[in-house]
Design brief:
Length: about 270
């Protein structure tokens, strides 16, 4: 009799238990769906912020490149300094090295069709020079975002750009200028080496001076802060707001050395 009662109770209770299970499953599915929807919205929001930041830095790079083109090598007036690499590095530091490469190609293409007179050859040289400077700096800096690695990374970029440009000037300059290669070879250590070393040194110095202020501004506007939280970068509010003048001091010292080298070259 007791067994019969238990069976009857189970018979009547099973539909309710099944219904409860369906409700619980539906609730869990709803929570999962809402979570996925929120994740998609966050991804979209972060993508928009990333594109906005890249567009802003690309615009700054182009404008300063267009208005600040300085030849400082008397022996080769076609060699001009411009500061666009600074903003390529800042984009790589803030967002990632591959995003930095994207705006390198974009800005150099726009430069070729607007203000440059060197055509595809100039485009090739600009892209190679910028990539050699930006990529080592960003790949080293992303390992741990601190001042020592920023200095090491930028120094690696300076060396990589300088050495690669000696090779590419040896290959490209005779094609671009029409000079015989025998006349270009003596210019490698006396013209192209100091030019690229000073150019990259100035860009390193100015990056150290302005990177932190730009980073602080972008964090305060929220353009990069949420991305850092999502990717789990252990950067607390206090660290984001922390400002050290050491980078600016190093940058000013390096800039003074580069300006002194230019004055010596111009004096000779």
């Amino acid at each position: 009799m007791q067994s019969f009662c238990i069976c009857r109770l189970r018979f009547f209770a099973e539909p309710f238990l099944y219904a409860k299970t369906r409700v619980d499953d539906h609730y869990e599915d709803s929570l999962l769906s809402n979570s996925n929807h929120e994740s998609e919205e966050l991804d979209l929001k972060l993508t928009i912020k990333k594109i906005t930041t890249l567009a802003m830095l690309a615009a700054l790079a182009y404008v300063l490149m267009a208005i600040c083109r300085i030849p400082f090598m008397p022996q080769a007036s076609f060699l001009e300094y411009d500061p666009k690499d600074i903003f390529f590095v800042i984009a790589g530091f803030l967002i990632g090295p591959w995003e930095g490469l994207i705006i390198i190609v974009l800005v150099c293409l726009i430069e070729m069709v607007t203000v440059s007179t060197s055509g595809p050859i100039g485009l090739l040289m600009n892209v190679i020079a910028s990539v050699c400077f930006v990529l080592p700096a960003c790949l080293i800096y992303r390992k741990k975002k601190n001042l020592p690695l920023a200095i090491v990374g930028l120094s690696a970029g300076v060396l990589c750009m300088t050495t690669s440009m000696i090779l590419w000037n040896w290959i490209i300059t005779p094609i671009y200028t029409g000079m015989p290669r025998e006349a270009v070879v003596p210019m490698l250590p006396t013209v192209f080496l100091p030019f690229n070393l000073i150019k990259a040194g100035i860009n390193m110095a100015l990056t150290l001076i302005i990177y932190k202020p730009i980073s602080l501004i972008l964090h305060k506007t929220g353009l990069v802060e949420e991305r850092a939280r999502k990717e789990g970068e252990a950067e607390s509010e206090s660290k984001v707001k922390k400002f050290s003048p050491l980078a600016i001091i190093v940058g000013i010292f390096l800039l003074a050395i580069c300006i002194g080298a230019i004055l010596i070259i111009r004096g000779n």
